[in-house]
Amino acid sequence: MSAQDKIKAAAEKVAGKAKETVGHVMNDDKLVAEGKAEQAKGEIRDAAEGVKDAFKK
Fold this sequence. Notes:
- The chain is mainly α and 57 residues long.
- It has helices at 3-26, 29-56.
């Protein structure tokens, strides 16, 4: 996993967590859901890159 890919995945997770938190504060279920989806996207990116790394070795 390249450093750039790690940064992208981490940024998605952080942005998603921020959206989720703001959604909770604002009582906005749609924003909470978007935040959780973004976090999941970051997790999937992490997992996919981990698989790529495993096959490179």
